[in-house]
Amino acid sequence: MFTILPIKGFIDQIDGFYCDGISAGLKPSGDNDLGFIYVSEPCDVQAVFTENKFQAAPLKHFLQYEENFKTNFVLINSKNANAMTGKKGIEDIDTIFSQLDFDLINPIMSSTGVIGNPLPIEKIVNGAKSFDLSSKSGENLSKAIMTTDAYSKTCMYEVKLEDGSSFKIGAVAKGAGMINPNLATMLCFICTDANIPVSDMKEALKVNSETTFNAISVDGDTSTNDTVMLLANKKSNSYEKQAFFEALRLVMHDMAMLMVADGEGAKKAVAFEVINALTKEDAQIAAKALSNSLLVKTALFGEDPNFGRIASTIGASKITCNEETLVISYNNIIVYNKGELCFDANTEAKASEVLKDDKFKVICDIGLGDKSFTAYGCDLGYKYVEINADYRT
C-alpha cells in the first residue's frame, strides 16, 4: 500500500536538487530565458526524445555519452532551439560548457525556440557564469524555459510507503504549440529522490509516455527538440516500483494536460475516448486522428457539436468500424446511436452546452470489441495563426 499526495512547490523542494532561471538577453522582452538544474551529487538520468528524424543538437549531444551515465548539471535555454545547426550545433554546446567554471560532470544542455539559428554562445556563457548553484528557485526556472506558453507548468508529489519511508517527485515543463503524439515541442524535466534502479527509470518513462505525452496534440506537428528527462539522486533511500510508476504517471499526465490546455490560443481541453474498438491499435489510431483533425479542432473552437466531423475522421482513419455499431457522445449526450440520428434541436442544444465548457469528453464507442484508448487535444482558433505567423520575430 502507498499514498500519493500532491504538495505545493517546485522541484527545488526535493533534497539535493537546485535550480534557478535568469535573463541572459535571449528574449528581447528581458524575461527569464536561461535556467539550470544542479544536483549536489551525480545522479542517474534517463530520457525519451522526439521521433522527428531531424533531432536537435542537444539531443545528439546527450546521446554521445555512454549508456546509463550520471550527470550533475542541466543547462536549459529558450528562444533558440539549436536545431538544424549541423555538427557546429553540438560543438557549440561543448564550447559553452568548457567556458564555465563549475565542477560539471557529464553536463546536459536542452534548448527550445526557433529552428535554424546558431546559439548565441557569448550571451549564454555570460548568463550561466552568474548562476548561483545553491539557488532554489523553481519558479524562476519555470519561467525561463517558456516560449509561447501562457503560464509555467509544474507539479510536485510526495509518496508515502507502507514501511513509513517516503520519496518526492516533481516536474517543470514547457509546451504550448507544435505538439503532436510522439511527444511535442516540449521540454519536461522530472526530478526525484526515489532510490530507483536505472532499469526501472527506462521502463517507467516508456510505459507512461504512451498514455500521457504520446497521447496529446495541439496542432499535429512534431518538433526537433522534444525531451522528457528523469533525474534521480536516490537520496531518500525509499522506493517501491508500483508506487513510483503511478506517481510518475501522475506527474507526466499533469504536465501533458497543462500543455493541451495551454495550446497556443486554445480555450478548450478535450479528451477523445475511443472505446470498444476491435484492437488496441485501432483505438489509438482513431483517438489520435480525432485529436489531430483540423476540422474537428475548428468545430470545437466554434462550439459546434458537428458529429459528422467526428464520424468522418474515424472512417478516414481506416480502422475497422461500422456505422451500425458506432455511438458518438459529447459527455453523456448521445448524438449518433448505431445508425440512428439523435441530432434533433433539443439534443443539439444540450450538446452545444457541453462544448461551451473548457473541458469535456468526446466519446466514440466503436462497438466491435473491448479495446480503448484516450487521446487529448484542444480547439484551434485565430490566436494560433497569429502566434505562429510571426514566431521568429
Automatic annotation (TrEMBL):
GO terms for cellular component: cytoplasm. The active site is at residue 185. It comes from Poseidonibacter parvus. Its main location: cytoplasm. The gene is argJ. Catalyzes two activities which are involved in the cyclic version of arginine biosynthesis: the synthesis of N-acetylglutamate from glutamate and acetyl-CoA as the acetyl donor, and of ornithine by transacetylation between N(2)-acetylornithine and glutamate. The keyword DNA repair does not apply. Heterotetramer of two alpha and two beta chains. It catalyses: L-glutamate + acetyl-CoA = N-acetyl-L-glutamate + CoA + H(+); N(2)-acetyl-L-ornithine + L-glutamate = N-acetyl-L-glutamate + L-ornithine. This is Arginine biosynthesis bifunctional protein ArgJ.
